[in-house]
UniProtKB/TrEMBL annotation:
Pfam families: GTP-eEF1A_C, GTP_EFTU_D2. Keywords: Cytoplasm, Elongation factor, GTP-binding, Nucleotide-binding, Protein biosynthesis. Residues 70-136 form the Translation elongation factor EFTu-like domain. This is Translation elongation factor ef 1 alpha. The keyword Phosphoprotein does not apply. PANTHER family: TRANSLATION FACTOR. Coiled coil: none annotated. GO terms for molecular function: GTP binding; translation elongation factor activity. Residues 147-247 form the GTP-eEF1A C-terminal domain.
Length: 250
């Protein structure tokens, strides 16, 4: 992040000072003449929704609806979906049809990237719909792999990360047993330049390129193509040890 992206606003939730109108408090006005809190919030640039990209939804919950098919809920990370659309369940590889869409408990005909939705499906075996699986566009399916490369930042850990280091991979609503299959390079934390190829380990507060091997095939996307789906977190022993972005799928 850049410091220029931050705005500091002195305010008080207790007295309401400088929240919805300029402050009249003499002590505050003597050193602060900037905007009040609501002004700053109103100036935020709304995030762009990747509606032009292929449809992607990570299943966060599965339940039996009033109809014959299963219902799945989750956030649409990219693309759009409409009633009657064909969707592909991955990594199971089953194709189904959207029979109902609900957004904020209201039935609708369409939903878009950024919406938290519930979809009613037909033609899909409910036993194959699990948390962490993906619904996607059958014409442009999400990638499935058990190994990928990631650029990671290592946090304040006590034990260095070495080849074979066991971790729990957290990706969207999924958590999966994994390991550090290769240490490709150590990177300069600020510039991203390669400091050392094939390092023996990655220590606390360092950065590096690694290859991660998952215990079974999972759905992933590259960060450069789908920022919403290109981030991973690594945990070990109940603590977060590293986080990063997916750079290559092997």
């Amino acid at each position: 992040y850049r410091e220029s992206d931050f705005t500091f606003v002195p305010c008080s939730g207790l007295t309401g000072e400088n929240l919805i109108e300029p402050s009249s408090e003499e002590k505050l006005c003597s050193w602060y003449s900037g905007p009040y809190l609501v002004q700053v919030i109103d100036s935020f640039k709304p995030p762009e929704r990747p509606v032009a990209k292929p449809f992607r939804l990570c299943v966060g919950d599965v339940f039996k609806g009033t109809g014959s098919g299963p219902c799945v809920s989750g956030r649409i990370e990219a693309g759009t979906v409409a009633n009657g659309d064909k969707v592909l369940l991955m990594p199971a590889g089953e194709q189904g049809t959207v029979k109902g869409i609900t957004v904020a408990e209201t039935p609708t005909q369409h939903a878009f990237a950024g919406d938290q939705v519930t979809l009613t499906l037909a033609g899909v075996d409910v036993m194959k719909v699990v948390t962490g699986s993906f619904l996607c566009d059958p014409a442009v399916p999400i990638r499935v792999t058990s190994k990928f490369q990631a650029r990671v930042v290592v946090f304040n850990i006590d034990i260095p990360i070495t080849r074979g280091f066991p971790v729990v991979l957290h990706y969207q609503s999924m958590s999966e047993q994994a390991s550090i299959h290769k240490l490709i390079s150590q990177l300069h934390k600020t510039t991203g330049e390669v400091v050392r190829n094939k390092p023996r380990c990655l220590t606390r507060n360092s950065s590096g390129m690694v290859e991660i091997k998952v215990s079974r095939p999972i759905c992933v996307e590259l960060y450069k193509e789908f920022k919403e789906l290109g981030r991973v977190t690594l945990r070990s022993g109940g603590s977060t040890v590293a986080a990063g972005v997916i750079t290559a799928i092997t």
